[in-house]
Amino acid sequence: MRKNAKCLFVTTIILALMLIDPLFSQTITNTMENNSVKAGFGLPTYSSETINEYSAEDKILLPFVYNGFIYTFSLNRKIPLWRFFIGGDLENPFVLNDKQLFFFDIYNRLYSVNLSDGKLMWIRDVDDEVIGQPSIVKNAVVITTHKGNILAFSEANGRLIEQYDTKREIAGGINFYNDLMIVAFKEGIVEAYNIYTGKKVWQFANTGFISVKPVVNEGKLFFGTWDNNFYSLDVKEGKLIWINYVGSEISRDFLVFKSNIVLFLSGGEILSLNKQNGVIDWVKYFKGIDFDYNYFGGIDKFYVFIPELLAYDPKNGSMVFTYRERVYELYKDMLFNMMVEGKHFIDEKEREKLLRDKYFVVNNYPILPPVKSDDFVYYVGDDSNLYIYNIKKDFFILKYKLE
Question: Is residue 259 within 8 Å of residue 279, measured between CB atoms?
């Protein structure tokens, strides 16, 4: 099942994020001065394993986790380029900034590698369990830990810029909005800080236990709690816009659309709230289905695996299509167009190849949360295939069998 992603954030770290400068190197501890893991730990060290050499054709590179490795996949050539062992199928352990990939492993070491060839740029030991996805803020890589530490490392060389012990567990990571940094604590407190001055701008307290990272969208902060309530705050001032009782704890990631917020609850329940006032617009139940990683959001629809992929409209909960039927119709249209255009009829071998490589159905759950990157959502299924979905075309463009 889903692992709960594991602040007071004082002026020093916030200013450090904005003003990465050699001056701050004076505050770095001696134990973090070199590019290797601390001596004496006795931990294994790893390097990238080249699968296919990088080429100038490889313009779209997609990182993902599978079977204890981080992989990079070339969409242009439809092949993996390299992989790096991280010790387990960690949830959201990486963040990408242009051509530099940052990730952590099961030993709580933070890495920077070149996205194209997997070359190690630097590595740092964290000394605590890293929780939640790393963030990139003003040329710094920011991570949070199980004990409530926030650490900022230089993106360029991995130097520890600053760290601060909040003494409170953070709910999944940190949000940023304009000049604000928003921190939600599991105990139910949400705070915002000005990233230029370090001053606390607002605090919202007395909520229930928070285990899912909030979402910032169009000037509003959305989050749910274990007291079965869902909240909308003004992200600039922290003022409550609305609160609504939804009848179940919020323990899974939710999706925010233009006019609706879609919640995935226990017992196969999907519930949609009106984004403006929090009123429940519709509820849908799936018998025998529990939501974990088996859903993702698109542009104007969301998708669920049961395990067949289905697409729904977030405004009214109506089904837009089943992927099986969509593929069948597209396949028929392709055959009809070939006939009208006078092209040759496909033989059985060509037909099998088309059904295997292009017009295939999907009946496999993701083993980790699907990753969204530009126009694509992609994931590894429980059949060990990498699936890549084009959310603009509403079509799977690739199924690739991993070794």
Answer: no
Longest dimension (CA), the chain: 74
Amino acid at 394: D
DSSP letter at 59? -
- Is the distance from CB of 358 to CB of 78 less than 8 angstroms? no
DSSP state of 16: H
The token duo for 106 is 């099961």
Take residue 255 and report the two structure tokens written for it.
């999706």
Please give the helix or strand (H or E) that residue 159 lies within, else none.
none
Rounded Cα–Cα distance for residues 195 and 177 (Å): 10
Question: What DSSP line would sit under 316-363, residue for residue?
Answer: T--EEEEHHHHHHHHHHHHHHHHHHTTPPPP-HHHHHHHHHHTS----
Helices (DSSP H) in 234-303: which residue ranges?
none
Sign, Cα dihedral of 281, 286, 287, 289:
negative
Average pLDDT along the chain, 403 residues, taken 10 residues at a time: 39 41 31 37 82 95 97 97 96 93 96 96 93 90 89 94 85 87 91 82 90 95 95 97 95 96 95 97 94 94 96 97 95 80 76 90 95 95 97 96 89
Distance of alpha carbon 25 from alpha carbon 389, whole angstroms: 43
Tokens in use for 185? Answer: 């604590």
Instruction: Give the integer Cα–Cα distance in Å for 26 and 214.
Output: 35
pLDDT value of position 127: 87
- Residues with Cβ within 8 Å of residue 165, at least 6 apart in sequence: 147, 148, 149
